[in-house]
Design brief:
This is G-protein coupled receptors family 1 profile domain-containing protein. The protein is mainly α. The chain has a single domain, classed as Up-down Bundle (Rhopdopsin 7-helix transmembrane proteins). The chain has a two-stranded antiparallel sheet with strand order 1-2. The protein is elongated.
């Protein structure tokens, strides 16, 4: 009786997981696409084209669109067991490479926008002069090159039809999985978070100092 109950429970749990994966992915996909398209429309207006911070956020929204399309399309297809990354090595490699690089680049661009706001709020004119379109374009290009370089190992590491892993498209050995986790944890999450937090505190400090001078 216990064995029969377990046999019935496992397909039920698989069905529930597939349904949750489908509807949650669709929800994020629709609102993510709409939200980022609206961001692009607003931030690409002529009045904002000379604003370095707006350029960072516009680039981040474009990269987010790429990440959502490549990341969630296959997740939605997986709900109907049609995910090509499960069986095709090159589609598997291409998908994870694009998703990880675009996700990292998006976060780094927001980090650079925070640094740009700090430069603009600085008391020193030399720092404020660094908040310009030339520096912003250089930052965007640097983010693109670094994000692609840091995750280039995924083209070698990821393979389809991996059986002993959470996903069928996954790192083929322990070393690959460890490198990917370390790179993602440090370069996509920890370091940008620390930089954004630090510069946000310095921005608040600059604003308080500016208000103090105005009151005098």
């Amino acid at each position: 009786m216990t064995s029969l109950s377990d046999e019935n429970l496992i397909p039920l749990l698989d069905t529930i997981l597939d349904e949750m994966n489908l509807y949650l992915s669709l929800f994020i996909f629709i609102f993510g696409i709409v939200g980022n398209i609206l961001n692009c429309l607003v931030l690409s207006q002529r009045i904002l084209r000379s604003n370095p911070c707006a350029l960072y956020f516009l680039s981040s929204s474009i990269v987010n669109l790429i990440s959502i399309v490549f990341g969630l399309t296959t997740r939605i297809m997986a709900s109907w067991h049609l995910d090509p990354t499960h069986t095709n090595d090159w589609i598997c490699k291409f998908r994870v490479y694009i998703v990880f690089t675009s996700r990292s680049m998006s976060i780094w661009l927001i980090m650079l926008a925070t640094v740009d706001r700090w430069l603009l709020s600085s008391r020193k004119g030399s720092r404020r002069n660094l908040s310009n379109l030339k520096i912003a374009k250089l930052g965007i290009c640097t983010s693109f090159v670094l994000s692609n370089w840091f995750y280039i190992h995924m083209i070698y590491c990821y393979e389809a039809n991996i059986l002993d892993a959470p996903l069928k498209c996954y790192g083929k050995n322990t070393a690959c999985r460890l490198v990917t986790d370390l790179v993602y944890g440090l370069l996509t999450i920890l370091i940008p978070s620390i930089v954004m937090m630090s510069f946000s505190i310095m921005i608040i400090s600059n604003i308080h100092h500016l208000r103090g001078r105005i009151k005098r």
